[in-house]
Write a structure and sequence with these properties.
- The complex is a heterodimer of chains A (542) and B (393).
- Chain A is of the alpha/beta class and 542 residues long.
- Chain A is built from 23 helices and 20 strands.
- With 393 residues, chain B is an all-alpha fold.
- The chains are: A alpha/beta (542), B mainly alpha (393).
- Chains A and B meet through strand 4 and helix 15 of A and helix 2, helix 12 and helix 13 of B.
């Protein structure tokens, strides 16, 4: 037994239950981790990242089982360990930070009470000691009001703060190993930085070993000492972060690295005389009595893509809801081809409804799970164009060819039988089916893997060229903006902060908020986070 | 003393369970599959195995050595039910179209048994006039309250299940009872679901005052104990209907359907609320779809699983309510045969259990008919639920 390794996994095989058959999902992975080392696991969804990360804790999800190989934690055989041994390790020496902190905390208890549970259970500390320690950890993680924040309930703090509180909770027993399962994926870029730096500091401070699971290469570059690339349960390659970034060996890794290169050519300026297809004039909106939009003005011209960026809560999606008529504005109006639209969708004509379409972020909830692809795409074809029978079917097949999916294979499937990217394509086809002139894309790529997302972006760009569509592209991902947008609108707290052509936006001088957004996008450079934090510190002292 | 034995045997089962798992883990099985199975086996699963073995041994002991009559019958009935379900499924897998055979292939024995039972009940109900040996209100001179029709024991071979205290053939009444009870219960349940689902989905989709009005009305209805309320309304209805027995039945169906739809309403509203927040509903709204399309084409298909489960359950409850009302004398009116009334009429025979066990089984026949259908329907619903939930994941 190698003393140096805290975690040693040899030839790990894991099977998952699908249709009452065991199917191998992890095919013989080796993994080793020294004390104080951070290993990044990277791969697309379905690569087995989380499964391997959890297996390193000796845990498998419901419906999975370890079918072969060995797992040692500090010399303890975790595969054959009984429940008691595992119980004494988990929480105390091995901890886990989940992707969604909001789902990881019990909403009925205060944060600090959940924090103290572990140490008290494992008889490491008394309740009072543990509370003091929690406050100390909150301070180290730079949470605001460390003395007080733990006594709130999970819904009373923001997502980024909750994620840091969860990291503090994982630290509560000073474990030797922490498994981070995509801890920043659900966060805004600006919040992500705080969480990343907090995690890195605390891992360094306590010399904790960590397994960091993510699909974001730029994030892993900041966090990990070593990176392991996975694909469908197989290891593609493993190397030091530096050499992995500068000199990837395998084709697949290179393709992952190359993903962010897609960029559309810049289009010429629109002449000021053309009527914008959609334009918002002084739009105010509110949910109940809470105002969410404040005097929003912007135009979208035919055949162009306007990206609306901002953090969550900035009112991007609300603006979209005003345009489609789901949320009538309290003041101002929405013009369509220069003519004011009725505020509420029920008062609009069928043509208005037909010409404005929307593609949603979560394809899972945007497609009726009980309907076949033919029914989903066929309904707007029938509803707006009045096609029936053979004509309808031909049109649906045509639409499926436009979104690059084979109608022979997919037309009679249910959404659950498709992958995430395919579902999103169906969402696009449904929007196309009514032959619109304007489509709102609400975070269409943020739930997808990078390779898949790029495919979707290319498809949207091609469709725009062939049908002269206009897009309003809501996103928080600036890489996407760079790839697809013609113009950019930056929103914060329900107001438009800055707008203009894309190239102008990406070149200084910026509005300070735009600057913050731009600089917060992780770059594929291991020193990026340090440099950035350093520069911001300087700013603050000045 | 018995308590001591019981404790010792339970402790023994637990110890053996541990031993079973332990040996399983020690032995190096030829199949890798088994090694993994024992490694991941939890302690209680091991105990479960031993307990199952103990239960089988106990059953065999009582069946062959003690030979307690009712226990023997029970075991035989269980075996017959299981076998018939198995054979039905076996036949279903061989005969029929490609689609039906595929359906049978994914079916557990319990569901096959349930379907077989429901089919038999339906046949009995539809062809009652041809199958039943006598009329349901035909009164004979002889009163022979002894099922079995065995002359050696004093039975009458003309009446396979004996007669009731008025001299009406029980077998015929059971068969006609299927027609009356099951038919009315089915109609009532379908009706209550129509009301409940429409109301619930409307409340979920429209919200606002529609939701308030409907929900408060339902609350008010539910605040009154159902059976007592039904009794009250039935009394009024009976007065209205006068001597028109058909109208009494119609009123009964309506009253039970409305009272029962409150529960369906609550369920479909709760399920509907979860569905209306989905993006595909929003997409359909913005498309300008009508309310009817939203309710029945977009929401309903996604609510079938919980509603079907509820249907199975509700059907049984409606069934029992009708039987209870008939038992109290205001449901299905005599001389029409109905299982609830039959249980009531024959209930006093239970008192004969001490000196004539066979006679005491008479009220159990109708009760058993109710129980069997309830179990069968729930078997089917369980299977359908399992199937539809499997599709989702």
């Amino acid at each position: 037994m190698d003393d140096q390794n805290l975690v040693l996994v040899k030839n790990l095989k894991i099977e998952g239950l699908a249709d009452e058959k065991w199917i191998q999902i992890v095919n013989g992975i080796d993994l080793h981790l020294k004390k104080g080392e951070v290993l990044g696991l990277i791969g697309e969804s379905g690569a087995g990242k989380s499964t391997i990360g959890l297996a390193a804790m000796g845990f498998t999800r419901e419906g999975c089982r370890i079918s072969g190989g060995e797992i040692y934690f500090d010399g303890i055989d975790l595969v054959n360990a009984d429940a008691k041994t595992k119980r004494s390790l988990l929480g105390k020496r091995i901890a886990y930070v989940a992707q969604s902190a909001a789902a990881g905390f019990n909403p009925a208890h205060r944060i600090i009470d959940q924090h103290t549970e572990g140490p008290v259970q494992h008889r490491v500390m008394s309740v009072q000691e543990s509370r003091n320690d929690a406050i100390e950890l909150y301070r180290k993680l730079q949470l605001p009001n460390p003395e007080e924040i733990g006594f709130r309930y999970p819904h009373q703090v923001s997502g980024g703060q909750l994620q840091r509180a969860m990291t503090a909770m994982a630290m509560s027993c000073r474990p030797d190993l922490i498994v981070f399962d995509e801890p920043t994926t659900a966060l805004d870029v600006t919040t992500q930085i705080e969480v990343l730096s907090a995690i890195r500091d605390i891992v360094e401070q306590f010399d904790t070993a960590a397994i960091y699971i993510t699909h974001d290469l730029a994030v892993v570059a900041q966090m990990a000492d070593r990176v392991k690339v996975l694909l469908k349960g197989d290891q593609i390659e493993e190397a030091d972060t530096e050499s992995m970034l500068s000199d990837p060996q395998e084709e697949y890794t290179k393709s992952l690295w190359a993903v962010r290169t897609f960029k559309r050519p810049t289009k010429p300026m629109v002449s000021s005389t053309t009527t914008p297809i959609v334009s918002l004039k002084g739009v105010n909106a509110s949910y109940g009595k809470t105002p969410v939009l404040e005097n929003v003005n912007f135009d979208i011209h035919p055949g162009r893509t306007v990206a609306v960026v901002g953090e969550s809560g900035s009112g991007k999606s609300t603006a979209a809801r005003c345009i489609v008529g789901l949320l009538p504005p309290t003041a101002g109006e929405v013009l369509f081809n220069g003519i004011p639209l009725p505020a509420h969708y029920k008062k609009r004509t069928k043509q208005d409804l037909q010409k404005i379409q929307m593609i949603y972020q979560m394809a899972d909830t945007a497609l009726n799970p009980r309907k076949t692809i033919f029914e989903i795409i066929g309904r707007p074809v029938e509803f707006f164009l009045g096609l029936r029978g053979k004509e309808k079917r031909r049109r649906v097949e045509e639409l499926m060819e436009q979104i690059e999916m084979d109608p022979m294979i997919y037309i009679d499937r249910l959404p659950s039988e498709l992958s995430g990217g395919q579902k999103q394509r169906i969402g696009i086809a449904r929007a196309l089916a009514s032959e619109p002139s304007f489509i709102i894309c609400d975070e269409v790529t943020s739930a997808l893997d990078q390779l898949v997302a790029e495919g979707i972006l290319k498809l949207l760009a091609n469709l725009q060229d062939s049908f002269n569509l206009s897009y309003m592209f809501i996103t928080h991902d600036l890489a996407t903006v760079r790839a697809i947008a013609d113009e950019v609108v930056v929103m914060k707290n329900g107001e438009v902060i800055e707008q203009g052509l894309k190239d102008d936006m990406f070149h200084p001088p910026h509005h300070p908020y735009t600057e913050l957004l731009l600089s917060s996008v992780p770059e594929m450079d291991t020193t990026w986070l340090d440099t950035l934090l350093e520069s911001r510190k300087v700013d603050k002292t000045v | 003393m018995i308590l001591v034995y019981l404790i010792i045997s339970i402790a023994g089962i637990f110890a053996l369970g541990w031993l079973f798992r332990w040996t399983g883990q020690k032995i190096n099985w030829p199949k890798d599959e088994w090694n993994i199975y024992f490694r991941d086996m939890s302690y209680l699963v091991g105990v479960g195995f031993i307990f199952a073995v103990a239960l089988i041994l106990f059953t065999l002991y009582v069946y062959f050595i003690l030979q307690i009559k009712f226990f023997v019958w029970g075991v035989q009935l269980l075996v017959i039910c299981g076998l018939s379900g198995y054979i039905f499924r076996f036949l279903g897998r061989r005969i029929g179209t490609e689609g039906s055979r595929k359906l049978f292939r994914s079916m557990p024995v319990t569901a096959a048994f349930g379907i077989l039972t429901v089919i038999l009940y339906a046949l009995l109900a539809i062809f009652a006039d041809f199958i039943a040996p006598y009329e349901q209100d035909e009164i004979f001179e002889v009163i022979n309250a002894l099922p079995g029709g065995n002359p050696d024991l004093g039975g009458d071979p003309r009446f396979l299940l004996g007669t009731d205290q008025l001299g009406r053939d029980l077998l015929s009444r059971l068969i006609y009872g299927a027609q009356n009870t099951v038919g009315i219960a089915f109609a009532t349940t379908v009706f209550s679901f129509l009301i409940g689902i429409t109301g619930g989905f409307l409340a979920a989709t429209l919200g606002g005052w529609v939701d308030q009005v409907l929900s408060r009305a339902v609350d008010a209805l539910m605040a009154i104990p159902q059976l007592i309320f039904a009794l009250l309304l039935m009394t009024i209805a009976t007065a209205w209907a006068g001597s028109n027995k058909v109208m009494i039945m119609v009123y009964m169906v309506l009253i039970i359907a409305v009272l029962d739809s409150t529960r369906v309403y609550r369920l479909s509203r709760a399920v509907g609320l979860n569905i209306v927040v989905m993006d595909f509903i929003e997409a359909a709204k913005v498309r300008g779809e009508t309310l009817r399309y939203l309710l029945f084409r977009e929401i309903l298909p996604n609510a079938t699983a919980p509603l079907l489960a509820e249907f199975g359950l509700r059907f049984c409850f409606v069934f029992l309510t009708i039987s209870a009302l008939s038992f109290l004398g205001i449901g299905i009116q005599p001389p029409l045969a109905d299982w609830g009334t039959m249980v009531r009429d024959l209930a006093q025979f239970i008192n004969f259990a001490a000196f004539s066990p066979l006679t005491a089984t008479l009220p159990l026949l109708a009760a058993g008919a109710i129980a069997l259908l309830t179990v069968a329907v729930n078997f089917i619903v369980d299977w359908v639920l399992h199937k539809s939930s499997g599709l989702k994941s």
